[in-house]
Amino acid sequence: MKQLSFLCFLIFVLASTKGQVAQQDTARVFQLIEAANEKQQQGLADAAERDFRKAGELAKRLNFDRGLLMFAGYYCVFLYHQIRYEEAMTMAELQLEVSERIGDKQRIGYAYNNISLQHQAQGKLQQAAESLMKALEISSEIESPTPRDLSDRRKYYNNLSSLLLDMNDLKKGKEYAVKALEIAEQLQDTLAIGWSLINLLVAEAMAGELADAEKHGMQLLAVGQSQGDAEMELKAYNNLGDIYRMQKRYPLALETFKKAQRLLAKAPPGNEVYILMGISSVYNGMKQYGQANTYFDRARMLAERELAKPQLIELYLSGAEIKEAMGNYKEALALRKQYEQINDSLRNQETHNAIQELEVKYQTSEKEKALAERDLQISKQRGELERKNKWVILSVSLVAISVLLWVFNRLISRQKRKTEATEQANRLLEAQLRGEEKERARTARELHDGVASILSAAKLHINARPGGDTKTDLLVGQLIETAVQEIRNLSHNLAPERVLNDGFEQAVQEFCRRVNHPGLQLECYVVGVLPKLDKDAELLLYRIIQEAVTNIVKHAEATEGIVQLVGDGPRLSITIEDNGRGFEHDASKSTGLGLKNLASRIQLLKGSHEVRSAPGKGTSIYIEIDAATAMQLTDTGLETHFSG
User: Fold this and answer.
1) What CATH number is associated with residue 519?
2) Whereabouts are the TPR repeats (predicted)?
């Protein structure tokens, strides 16, 4: 029994010891990676690489995916800075493989970002963009991003901006730089703001927006100095120097580049080449070609070891100009060819591949070499001709599109102005109608509550007067009653409470009944079921009918008239006819204020109307309203107040 207990205890101790050893080994992976990063910052590249390799081998031996993932990511960055892009690509692909295996989406995004950087450095800009867009897609799928997620997204936007600027797409390059800057400002991350400013000012400088570029360059310099970041400060001086060169402020440009030189000891390797390139370009601008050539040769020696392919374009172009100015045409031509080869590879891969095939044939023999050179020249001429034709077609197309867009924009602007004028007129008409309704309501109240009440009181006093002339009193009472009735009719016309209380149909019929008198027989007909209208629309239609009928009474000298309401689904048709004297309709278009008011009110209801008249043949007005449209008459409504 004691032996069994001792055996169990021994197994437990061995298992615990094994677990502790495994834990210590995995911790060792992280320690090695951390040590490698520190040595890299100190410029001890060989020592850093040894620690990275040890970390990777240990992580693989332990099957420690998290350690392997961290190793692949950091070692990829190390190799990238060492201009070892193929090896860095292998590490980025390992990073992607491991992160997909363990389902870590955030680090899948990191892997795609690293793959994109290697493609970009090798001039494979299309593949770089595809990988970077995958990283951005992963970032955009996060519904509630944390500050870390937003920081990653900012980095992807900034890298995409850099990539687009390499492709000379200044508009989109600037757009993504602005997006990166907005996220950095949202996070209140000062260093991130600085790194985002770099691409923004580069885009502005490339686009010739030098004042904005200079402003952002000074802002970048302030960030670098406030944060004690020598590399950021150096990049600010470099970019400002280039901006001053483009502004032809050459002495200030040289002074600025020298300030950048003084920071080289504090900044990581790889920055000197940009300073040398900048100084060379300044001397070239000043036409001091000897000085320019000296700095160019120094820059070229470093650049071909330290710079990625896209960054070599401007160097070779500037060098070709300098060599040509010095009369060294052979080197100038060689540099120009190098420039064109890289430029074509970035922007026309198919043409580049075709030239490479011709160069292989050229090396087979002297005879084939001569033929290949001839074919190459023909191919170049054909390619140049095709390129020119494409540019001509593109230019003509762009001009045509620009003209069409200009014409379309003018038409849209004109239509917009007409629409705004119509809407303004409608708003003014609505305001006028609201004012009229208020005034009518006030007048109706005064007539009903004031004058009618006074006359009714007078009638009561006359009837109650003792000893009066009964016949005279009766006559006066009848006259007062007639006046009261007229005032009530007038107040009802001014404030048609029936429209709100009894409905539009009953209000029109009641109005026609009140207008009827021995000299004018006015009939009102309702056909079908009238569509339901907004109260404001009903009131406006009532006023239209009221004004048309009032014109019949005052001006038409008619003995008969008809008001007909026809309901047909959502449509309402209104016909108002009389047998009066009529008028010359064409002449009324310029002088008839009543018809203009009628047309304006119907337009407010988005309806249509037709007026037919001739001297001696009466007048006919036909109105048609769509109930669905008329119900959207106004957002505020016509303000109305009716007395009892």
Assistant:
1) 3.30.565.10
2) 234-267
